Amino acid sequence: MTDTTHTRPPGSGSRQGELGDEGSAELPSLAPWEPPASPAVPEADPDRVRALVREARMAASEADRAGVAGTLNQQLDALAAGGGSREVADLLEQLLESGQLAGLEDPGGRACRAAATEALTRLGFPYALEVRPEDLAFLRGQDGASQDFPWRPTAAGALLVAGIAAQWGVPLLQGESLEGPVLPLVLLMGLSLMALVPGLLGPERSASQRAGLLGLLVLSLLQLFLGVFGGYYGALSGGAGLLAWLLLMLPRR
């Protein structure tokens, strides 16, 4: 019986499980490519927010309290990013009014009270209107606006209201009737007041504040144009709105 040796052709490679001349070669993976995992974004959880508040209040050390406060601020930001709802607004208001967030700050120095107030303002209309003045003042102080003129927001709001009241009162005192369609003028005045709200209550340099100030400017210029060039009333309310916008746009010190 003849011993026959089978020789493979050059370049044919080796069968599975056999080693070639250059050692074992790792076969390329046929699994589909997966992108690297992105950082996890915490989901809004009202129950977890309550639990974190209790945990922060009961922390044994300042370092532990600051660490829990950092997680709590992330949850508060997530609540604001989830969109406005009555449940979320009630939770934020309850935390602020009860004083449970007092003295809680994350390692970066951001107060949980400021984070909750900002979250409530970011929920939009009508929840932003429910922010308490003292919480809003605390938020502005946290943002470094404590050196700003404290009278500017009050003066801007009072100026616009006074301009609207004068727009209706002056013609009546003079025994005149308003010329032109009254309904569009009422609508423009109402929209100006609504635009003033986020301009006053919105967080500093936020999108809601910029949108409110832009709306106030456009509506004021439109009323001014109708009153001066259109032959209708609206010059007083438009001029007052423009002055209020200028007050809010002054550079901050």
UniProtKB/TrEMBL annotation:
Protein name (database record): Uncharacterized protein
Membrane-crossing segments per the record: 149-170, 182-201, 208-226
Keywords, alphabetical: Membrane, Transmembrane, Transmembrane helix
Lineage: Bacteria, Pseudomonadati, Myxococcota, Myxococcia, Myxococcales
Disordered: region residues: 1-45
Keyword Transmembrane helix assigned: yes
